[in-house]
Amino acid sequence: MKKIVALTASALWLVLSSSAFAATDYNRPPSDDAQYRQCLRYAANLYEGGDEASPIRGQTKAQAWCTCMWNETPDDFGGNLVKFSESAKGKFTNKMCEKHADWQE
Question: Which of 17, 62, 77, 97 has its CA 20 to 30 A from that of 24?
Fold first, then answer.
């Protein structure tokens, strides 16, 4: 019985630590990236709560969301990340990034 409890606890710990690591697994956009800066400005004008702390250490909710959007769009995407998130094509990515940043309606 003790072995089963220990095995279950170990498996649970592994799952929880893996998901915590995945939440911070995105590359940070370069500070001079125009698309990322545009995302931050556009999101600040449209949405509320972006200046609140996100679950990602050192990032606001807007920064975490824009970082996720920046990483999840194709490399050759050159458009506005916020407008993309509001499109039918970007809806799934938006939901994933809202969850990542803990920035949901």
Answer: 77
